[in-house]
Amino acid sequence: MKDKANVAVLVSGGGTNLQAIIDAVNSGIITSAKLQIVISNNPGAYALERAKNNGIKTAVITKKECGGAEAFEAKIIETLESEDIDLIVLAGFMSILSKNFTDRFPERIINVHPSLIPSFCGEGFYGLKVHEAALAKGVKVTGATVHFVNEIPDGGKIILQKAVEIEEGDTPEILQKRVMEQAEWIILPRAVELISKEITGG
Ligand code: GAR
Questions:
Q1: Quick one: pLDDT at residue 85?
Q2: What are the backbone dihedrals phi and psi of residue 185, each rounded to the nearest 5 degrees, phi first?
Q3: 113 is catalytic
Q4: Ligand 1: does its nearest atom lie under 6 Å from the Cβ of 95?
Q5: Domain residue limits, the chain
Q6: Which of 69, 121, 131, 157 gives the lowest tally of CB atoms within 10 Å of its CB?
Q7: With a 6 A CB cut-off, is 113 part of the ligand 1 pocket?
Q8: Taking the complete model, does pTM exceed 0.90, yes or no?
Q9: pLDDT over 90 percentage in the chain
């Protein structure tokens, strides 16, 4: 049995959730996982810089370069297998994975979503759109969820959730920042440690 789970983090953008995981490894909150590789489907993602700054291997895999969704997923799978990955973390990864992909890794893919699932989730709910929808509905409490990934967008088993208050005058941007600070950056590293510990039998 390995003493640490090999983790791949899949990203598309700024990578603040990736940063939270890196910080949790550096501060000893995560002890059961090794950040093996960061894979981005966007060559311009700042998350790639964060990985490089911390000596983590990176790969850029785009649908365009692969010539379609099937070849794109096949390339990701090939990379995950060659890196001997135990746990796949979607941290702001803005591409929906097919059933063919998710079936290969049952309870080995986790995602962070910026709402309290089952509110404001599923296809079309990503990034700022989630917070726009929460404010439009007028909910008083929102939050974030870490869940296992299956073939249903945001439909897998819930692992951790944390609530965040909505405040008078919130804009989608202000709310997004609060949800990240008060929920996502806390529960995602916690879930990485929890599942990695299970994988390593700790
Ligand atoms: C985060 O808020 C994450 O929860 C969200 O995108 C943002 C990525 O930020 N993900 C989704 O909406 C997935 N459905 P980051 O690149 O700074 O971590």
A1: 98
A2: -70, -10
A3: yes
A4: no
A5: 5-200
A6: 157
A7: yes
A8: yes
A9: 99
